[in-house]
Design brief:
The chain has 376 residues and is α+β, with helices and mostly antiparallel strands. The protein has two domains: 14-106, no CATH class; 125-372, BirA Bifunctional Protein, domain 2 (2-Layer Sandwich). Helix content is 37%, strand content 18%. The chain is built from eleven helices and ten strands. Helix 1 packs antiparallel against helix 2, helix 1 (18-34) packs parallel to helix 4 and helix 2 packs antiparallel against helix 4 (67-106). Bound molecules: zinc ion (ZN). Zinc ion binds at residues 289, 291-292, 296, 304, 306-307.
């Protein structure tokens, strides 16, 4: 950079001569044009428009000129810089367009290529249906409770008021893991749980003080052969409510709400007297057939496959929790009452979707599960 001029002499300010400015401009334009890619252009940009580029340095010289020469020199440099910036922008646009086009070609995906991926799996309809049932109760404020599948005989039977010689404990119904024979009354064996009811006892013992509102979905085991209507491993969902002042009316209302949530508006339930050791009174519960709504009864012209033209579908068992069960679980039956019910998920899935053979649910054939959709 030259020292400030005291007396104006354009010859001394070499960098600001018109031909010199033109040369700098043309060099810049040539450099941009020669840039073959965006990297090269970035370098050319720094060299010709950066703070140490010839035009920037010349621009600084303007300050050293006497006032009468500043305007003309400023205009000259400004025009040159304008032309350089314009050329730079134009070249940048060209190179960017070329790059985009190249990326499109290089990264193109051929969507017509053969497809050989393994199809994504989905959850089994039993699992998704069991969760859907549990969700009905979670929406009412119930908590989901789970227990072990290998269960103490005490939880599976004794706590639930099964007497020691109750037939359900026999080898032909129950898988004993330990203590199958020579059972003494003071010794509790270990079984694969035969129902989800032991989770009730666990929930009461763990929580100690009611109110207790739990829903227990889970896998259970019985010594049945696998055939069209039986399987040694199946699923149940069990409900338990213990609070002050609960009655059969609460049980009935809860059942009606559940079947309406699962099968549609207006579906009703009915209770038929029955016996279970852990409830008193006990009942079998049926629901109105959600397909014919009872209209197939005595109407041979309109038979119903879902209910066998009976008008009702058997759902499962229920009742008021036996005070002996409350006592065994440390709950005062004078103060609290409760209701419980449970049913088999397989059975419900069968009549809800017209599944005729239970084996379809366990054999893992995707032709069975695929129509249920892809709930993940
Ligand atoms: Zn029907």
């Amino acid at each position: 950079m030259s020292a400030p001029n005291k007396s104006y002499d354009p010859v001394e300010v070499e960098a600001l001569k018109p031909e010199e400015i033109e040369r700098m401009r043309d060099e810049a334009l040539a450099a941009f044009e020669a840039a073959a890619d965006l990297d090269a252009l970035t370098h050319a940009k720094t060299a010709h428009t950066g703070p140490t580029s010839p035009l920037s340095l010349a621009n600084r010289e303007i300050g050293a000129l006497p006032p009468q020469a500043k305007a003309e020199a400023g205009k000259r440099v400004g025009m040159a810089r304008g032309a350089v910036n314009k050329a730079l922008a134009a070249r940048l646009a060209v190179l960017e367009a070329e790059r985009d086009e190249r990326v499109l070609v290089e990264e193109a995906v051929d969507v017509t290529l053969p497809y050989d991926r393994v199809p994504a799996g989905a959850r089994h309809p039993l699992t998704t249906f069991m969760e859907r049932v549990a969700d009905v109760f979670v929406a009412m404020g119930y908590e989901v409770a789970e227990g072990p599948e290998v269960e103490a005989e005490w939880f599976n039977f004794d706590a639930l008021n099964f007497v020691p010689d109750h037939p359900a404990r026999q080898m032909q119904d129950t898988f004993f893991v330990q203590g199958a024979d020579g059972k003494k009354t003071d010794e509790s064996g270990v079984v694969l749980r035969t129902h989800t009811s032991p989770v009730q006892a666990r929930a009461l013992l763990e929580r100690r003080e009611p109110p207790v509102y739990v829903v227990c979905p889970g896998r259970v085991y019985r010594t049945d052969e696998l055939d069209a209507t039986h399987t040694p491993v199946f699923h149940q969902i069990e409900l338990l409510a213990v609070d002050e002042g609960l009655t059969m009316a609460d049980l009935k209302g809860t059942l009606d709400h559940m079947v309406q949530a699962l099968f549609g508006e207006g579906v009703k339930t009915r209770l038929r007297p029955h016996y279970f050791p852990f409830t008193e009174p006990s009942a079998e519960m049926d629901m109105v057939c959600y397909v014919c709504r009872g209209e197939s009864v005595g109407n041979p012209d309109r038979p119903c496959r879902t209910c066998g033209s009976e008008g009702w579908i058997e759902l499962g068992g229920c009742g008021m929790v036996n005070p002996k069960v409350l006592t065994a679980c440390g709950v005062d039956p004078e103060k609290y009452s409760g209701f419980a019910f449970g049913f088999g998920i397989e059975r419900m899935l069968m009549f809800r979707h017209n599944v005729e053979d239970m084996r379809d649910m366990v054999e893992g054939d995707v032709r069975f599960t695929r129509p249920f959709g892809m709930e993940i």
